[in-house]
Amino acid sequence: MIVFTCLLYLQPQLLAAVKFIAHLVNQQVAHEIIALELLAVLLENPTDDSVEVAVGFVTECGSMLQDVSPKGLDGKNTALHIYAFVQNSFNMLV
């Protein structure tokens, strides 16, 4: 967790690493539990950066995760939608 917190300051590198992990999951080189754990870490204490990385990750491998483990992704999808809604509402007010 400390590693991901530190890496959030290096967002471009983190996005590249997360995209790589997503490709490994899509090719079934890495197990889907790794993907779900990564989402859990990113959304545990959501920030703008961590949610952006999580959205990018779900964009890359969300379809495969939905097919393989639909129950594992349900809670994460809900969290992403709620956060995106709040963020969009805030942006409209500003």
What's this, in brief?
With 94 residues, the protein is mainly α. It is built from five helices and no strands.
Unreliable spans: none
The number of helical segments is 5
Taking all Cα atoms into account, the compactness measure Rg is 13 Å
**Kindly, what is the distance between the CA atoms of the first and last residues, rounded to a whole number of angstroms?**
32 Å
Kindly state the percentage of residues in helix.
over 70%
Largest sheet: none
SS class = mainly alpha
Number of strands: 0
**Which series of helices and strands comes N to C?**
HHHHH
Q: What is the overall pLDDT average? A: 75
Strand fraction band? Answer: under 5%
Number of domains: 1
Q: Give the CA-based shape.
A: globular
Tell me what you see in this structure.
With 94 residues, the chain is an all-alpha fold. The protein has one domain. Helices cover 85% and strands 0% of the residues. The chain has 5 helices and no strands. Helix 2 packs parallel to helix 4. The longest helix has 24 residues. It is globular, with a radius of gyration of 13 Å.
